[in-house]
Design goal:
With 210 residues, this protein is of the alpha+beta class. The chain has eight helices and seven strands. The chain has helices at residues 14-24, 29-34, 38-59, 84-105, 110-117, 119-122, 152-166, 181-185, and strands at 7-8, 61-64, 71-77, 135-143, 170-175, 190-195, 203-208.
């Protein structure tokens, strides 16, 4: 994916990006379900986002509204050719880092066990059912709380949609907040399915067709 309007996040921006995600997802239903202990969650989430951003910087496209990083979108472009060795190495290193953090921050292994049970919520495996490689997958869409309702999320999403339409790509994403569904539907997304597995947590799977 590429954009002339959005700011492509640089490696030097990753620490600020991690802070943004930590704030935006502090009360996300997914993380509250997988890490129910609030103190463990406060310690663990910054480390998880640190691992995620290191991986996604290598394997995905990360754009912000500006250099101020008021909002960010992380996109995996399934249509782009990639170095499979580099991709799987990045995934393996990220998984090892995550597991180490989970065990260190919660030696009881309860959180580690939750992440194993919640794997299907985390790995977007539902997209295999789409049988569509000509596709963008939105991993994160987040806007700083004090900058919400300024059109930043719409800007990030509209640019992604414009690229997808130009290149005839489907877009997929998932959310764990039912209140987000109406927002995405305004941009042409439709509910593909809903997953509920091992936890009383619903994952809403959405697509925007070519």
């Amino acid at each position: 994916m590429d954009s002339h309007k959005l700011y492509r996040v640089q490696k030097k921006d990753l620490p600020e990006l991690e802070k943004l995600l930590n704030i935006c997802f502090a009360h996300d239903p997914l993380y509250e379900t997988l890490i129910p202990d609030e103190e463990v969650r406060k310690r663990l989430m910054p480390e998880l986002f640190h691992g995620d951003m290191n991986e996604f910087y290598q394997t995905c496209e990360i754009f912000a509204d500006s250099q101020q990083l008021n909002g960010v979108i992380v996109v995996s472009d399934q249509a782009e050719p990639c170095n499979m060795f580099r991709y799987y190495l990045s995934e393996a290193m990220a998984a090892l880092y995550t597991d180490t953090c989970l065990i260190r921050e919660d030696p009881s292994l309860k959180t580690f066990h939750n992440f194993m049970k919640g794997e299907d919520y985390l790995n977007s495996s539902w997209t295999d059912q789409l049988h569509q490689d000509q596709r963008l997958h939105i991993i994160y869409l987040a806007v700083s709380p004090h900058m919400q309702h300024h059109g930043i999320a719409a800007l990030l999403l509209e640019e992604t949609i414009a690229y997808a339409e130009e290149h005839k790509l489907m877009i997929s994403l998932e959310t764990h907040n039912e209140k987000n569904l109406e927002f995405y539907k305004r941009f042409g997304f439709k509910l593909y399915g809903m997953m509920k597995k091992n936890f009383p947590l619903k994952q809403y799977c959405l697509i925007r067709e070519v």
